[in-house]
């Protein structure tokens, strides 16, 4: 993952999955941070990851790891 | 006092455990998974880091690694969360009350239980389990190591048997974790253990680790930090089984304990503690009236013994009065004592840790010899 500066928020199922997603994406060169899920993505409490880099590539990595993306939002 | 009661809880703990816990109390003040502010996120990251460590130790995914209060809590969660009413389970003859009591309690929901006798011959033990597994059997619940005698059960072969028969194997790893290699891929479907024993973490910590094959219904419901507006407990692991605020300082301390174990190596820990047991046995085996509860099979670093007809609690008290911490009585294991035929006397249990020395063992042996005359 180089050069792509797409910014995306992926809503995760839990803080654990958010931390796991962050770990996987960082290992693969993505800029990534765990944030509270924006209210326009999901009501109620939840966690998301904010990702800088290829949206498609990040989603693919998460899918391979069995991590469900509950919702996504381009920034 | 010289401490030989490490099967109850290890002492001392590595200094790194205490330091990490003090740091967590001072600096990790946020509630993990309960907010988006920096402090909560830092706590959540710290908890996740330990979750990954623990998952790796048992060959599991981090999301299938659940923090519990202790091994008893983990076992109750697993047993009551997997076994449906009106079904059947098999337990071994070496079980702690943490297994036998929840199973007994499930009797009120129509759950029947059979006890497979553990033999010195592993083939016979596996055969004893096999004979008892029937069409209604939903789980086998089995310790990896007896908390009374240290007998190592053939858990890998029992796991294979359970896999062939489509039955969930729940393993009590309270005495095995940190000494023997265990994995949710080869040892059991669900591994339950304490954090404060062979993993050298603090009390108030435990683990339930699963391969995810058998769903576990939650024992408690409530705050998970997620889906706050929904009335139903979320079905997402591990939070589904972690209602309420987790023990952040304890978990961070457990992480340092696991680091300590990994740095020493399971095989080295086992070898050192086993050597201390061998030395202890060599010192006391000729003491008048000594009885050591060991057969020809494989044993973890625990030695159960008695001297003459002296009640084990009295002997443990004598040893305590002479500066040694060992546990007498029944070690919360009625089933085991029934099969050992030690219901009248109990046993005294010697259980060293990596921090014990051969010199300490020699001093204890001298006190045991002295006890033969009291």
Quick overview of this protein structure:
Chain A is α+β, with helices and mostly antiparallel strands and 75 residues long. Chain A has two helices and four strands.
Task: Please explain how this structure is put together.
- The complex is a heterodimer of chains A (75) and B (374).
- Chain A has helices spanning 15-27, 55-64, and strands at residues 7-11, 31-36, 47-52, 71-74.
- A four-stranded antiparallel β-sheet of chain A has the order 2-3-1-4, with helices on one face.
- The model of chain A has no long low-confidence stretch (mean pLDDT 92).
- Chain A has a single domain, classed as Alpha-Beta Plaits (2-Layer Sandwich).
- The radius of gyration of chain A is 11 Å and the shape is globular.
- With 75 residues, chain A is an alpha+beta fold.
- Helix content of chain A is 31%, strand content 28%.
- With 374 residues, chain B is of the alpha/beta class.
- Chain B folds into two domains: 2-10 and 265-371, Aspartate Aminotransferase, domain 1; 15-263, 3-Layer(aba) Sandwich (Aspartate Aminotransferase, domain 2), CATH 3.40.640.10.
- Chain B contains eleven helices and twelve strands.
- In chain B, the strands form three sheets. Chain B has a seven-stranded mixed β-sheet with strand order 2-8-7-6-5-3-4, with helices on both faces. Chain B has a three-stranded antiparallel β-sheet with strand order 9-10-12.
- In chain B, strand 3 (88-92), helix 4 (97-106) and strand 4 form a beta-alpha-beta unit.
- In chain B, helix 1 (15-27) packs antiparallel against helix 7 and helix 3 packs parallel to helix 4.
- The longest helix of chain B has 20 residues, at 38-57.
- Chain B is globular.
- The interface between A and B is medium-sized, with 17 and 26 residues.
